[in-house]
Amino acid sequence: MIMKNSLLVFGTNNLNKSLKEIEEYLDFSLIFANDAVTFNNNLSNTSVLLIDSESCKDIKILNLINSSHNKPVLLIEKLEFQKKCNYTEKISFPTTLLDFNHKIIALIISKKFNQNSSIQIKEYLIDKNEKKIKKNNLSATITEREIELIELLFHEVRPLSKNNLLKKIWKYSEDADTHTVETHIYRLRKKILDKFSDDKFIINTKAGYSI
Predict the structure, then answer these.
(1) From the DSSP assignment, how many helices (H) and strands (E) are in the chain?
(2) Helical H runs in 71-121?
(3) pLDDT tens per residue across span 61-99
(4) Disulfide engineering: 49 pairs with which of 35, 72, 87, 193, CB 3.0-4.6 Å?
(5) DSSP 16-28
(6) 5-115 is classed in which CATH architecture?
């Protein structure tokens, strides 16, 4: 059974009215926004964006769409909007309820797969499938262990000490000690410094390591 996901809609009154009439038959919930503030406040809680071409005339909404990690589904009526707005798929209305459902669910599944296979950290993309860290047109190969380190440091609110890293990553294995942690972090930081000229990706303070 597919759990309810949310679709953020920013459209004309006619589009909103049409969607509200069929909402109970959809496999996802709808959140309607009629201004940029409401739209922005709901971005992080939704799986997919649904935008019509008329809405792309709102420059604030357009900027939010293009800077969002949620890729929009754009209803395009005029070609000039294609060049201004980043979108994943196009839906042409009228469409069937079945096709509309399938299109959105497919996008949600694709989005979740991409989230599991990559991580956006600062201006970097960590590609777990290719085992690479990427920024702009540059990339560096990283190991599985280095990916674990990056993920752990990224998701922790506070800096982690060497002992904490040893416990969480190496599970206190017999062949691991604090020098193991230092060595792995040194190699990772050197890769990032050599490739991206960035010595601030992993920060080391008295409290421990952090990203």
Answers:
(1) 8, 11
(2) 80-84, 97-117
(3) 888 887 776 677 777 666 666 667 778 888 877 788 888
(4) 72
(5) HHHHHHHGGGSSE
(6) 3-Layer(aba) Sandwich (3.40)
